[in-house]
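To whoever picks this up:

The nightly regression suite flagged peroxidase as changed. Nothing in the input moved, so I suspect the structure step. Input below, exactly as stored in the fixture:
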Amino acid sequence: MAMPLLFIALALSFLPHTQSKLSAAYYDKTCPLFKPIMREIISTKQINDPTTAAATLRLFFHDCMVEGCDASVLISSNSFNTAERDADINLSLPGDSFDLITRAKIAIEVQCPGIVSCADILAIATRDLIVMVGGPYYEVRLGRKDGFISKASRVDGNLATSSMSVSEMLSLFESKGFTAQEMVALTGAHTIGFSHCKEFSHRLYNFSKTSEFDPTYNPKYAEALRKLCAKYTSNTAMAAFNDVVTPSKFDNMYYLNLKRGWGY
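Regenerated output under the current build:
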């Protein structure tokens, strides 16, 4: 199990980032309390809100896939600009992740004003939360600069959607510098968290002339999802765990479930 998990971690560490001289020791002299403050804020938040790990991992990925890991997804829209976070695909980004980064930034600014970027806070938070829910530790190089341009129009086409074919997803990840193996590894991050029923409902209802649901699903699993998501059109918040066996643990069960027909 260790190798697949380590590969996911390494793939996360090589997500595109803004150009600068990165180093794991970047803040050791300018903000020595950076990492201890982060550990305290992250631990408290995850204990109080256990969905924070999956929420932050998703936020980090959505940030990095659009012009690099520059925290531009955190920028709010205004009357002159619609920001990344208000692009259709980002509207479901969980509030817990934004809350965590805000809390961490405030605490760090008290100790080290104007030193630590939000981009680095998000990168470290993601790593520490992965470790906290059972995933492997990996080194995060620091020194990212925050982006100040955030446009919803730049999001479309940079993030995979449930309607994409495998070849389309491969092309998308290849354009970001990832191999097919690395794409599969990054997909394994779905081992924690949940997905909204509307994202996979097309595989549950009226799938084809010969089957009500996608026949690659285990029949009992498909029936359970059909019952769970029955009212997804009137309640768009309805969701299901990505990993039905260990939904809160960062492990390789997501892949094993897929082979059994217990995933989407």
